[in-house]
Amino acid sequence: MTRVQLIGVGKEYPARGKQAAPVVAVDDVSIDVASGEIHAVIGYSGAGKSTLLRLVNGLERATSGRILVGTDEITNLPESRVRVVRGGIGMIFQQFNLFHSKRVAANVEYPLIVAKVPPTERKRRVAELLDFVGLSDKATAFTDQLSGGQKQRVGIARALATNPGVLLADEATSALDPETSQEVLALLKRVNSEFGITIMLITHEMEVVREIADRVTVMDAGRAVEQGDVFDVFSNPKTETTKRFVATALPTEPNAAHLEELRRRHRGKLVTLTFRDGDVDQPVVFQTIADRGVGVSIVHGGVTDVGGRSFGRLTLELIGDDLKIEHAVAALAQHAELEVLA
Ligand SMILES: Nc1ncnc2c1ncn2[C@@H]1O[C@H](COP(=O)(O)OP(=O)(O)OP(=O)(O)O)[C@@H](O)[C@H]1O
């Protein structure tokens, strides 16, 4: 169980060439990852996510701010001590980074050899880890005989070998198909819940955050532009960046073009209702409409899960005479967040 704190962290790369300006890859980012938490950092390409991860594992030095991994302030430590701290950090990668010339068991054993763990203990630990990731039967296979999902499971077993307090995941499921991604994310959830390992992951995929994270930081152009509980951030996005991510995975209001199309097909009044975490009783909503003598059909949207809580956005067509619809809208507004689509 390890807490990871980034306090006003910045990373600037020097200018290359005479005309070029320095690149500010990470700009004044603060993230407090509680021990045992799964924290996702999401952003588009170039947002600074990978740089941030390299600062946390001490592969690069921050130009400003402080980073603490547990009680070790790695931004202050000499390189020899940073290496020791890195021993308590597991890493998994998009391209798995396995040794292709070694068998599965040898890949998992490698960090134990580096850590000078005695052979019998190593064998026991490797067997235990392969069992945990469900690959006991692949111990003697070469890694290029494995599927992508199996390779990442080897990566996870290897990362866990030395009992790290923190696991850093760099786009760990980006190279995998959706179903395999789900399996790997489920395994990471078990890593977190069974061993209490803090997980910090970077991704450009909203699905990953939705599936696994407790809290999220949204990065854009090196800065942390939104941060908080996954449900709070995504059910009420404030910045354009977050809104774009939300639109890829959560039910939204129809966009302008879609609204035109809906208008053409539906003559009634269109309204969008937002349901947050069961704070709206759906039967009451539909009863309210029926009680006013108004017909209803769902024309867009849905209900889904985010951060383990339900979130819904439904666009409804209200059908009936104008006055009744007006009353129904007024009554609905008492029960739910409602927007009339003008
Ligand atoms: N070693 C480096 N030298 C100079 N500039 C760098 C270096 N590493 C990263 N950058 C720059 O820093 C910015 C952030 O890059 P970074 O790779 O951290 O973003 P990212 O969000 O991880 O994107 P991606 O998912 O595409 O890797 C980019 O503008 C990139 O060009």
Automatic annotation (TrEMBL):
PROSITE patterns: ABC_TRANSPORTER_1 (PS00211), ABC_TRANSPORTER_2 (PS50893). This is Methionine ABC transporter ATP-binding protein. It comes from the Bacteria. Keywords: Amino-acid transport, ATP-binding, Cell membrane, Membrane, Nucleotide-binding, Translocase, Transport. One of its GO terms (molecular function) is ATP hydrolysis activity. Residues 4-246 form the ABC transporter domain. One of its GO terms (biological process) is amino acid transport. Pfam families: ABC_tran, NIL. InterPro entries: AAA+_ATPase, ABC_transporter-like_ATP-bd, ABC_transporter-like_CS, ACT-like_dom_sf, MetN_ABC_transporter-like, NIL_domain, P-loop_NTPase. PANTHER family: AMINO ACID IMPORT ATP-BINDING PROTEIN, METHIONINE IMPORT ATP-BINDING PROTEIN METN.
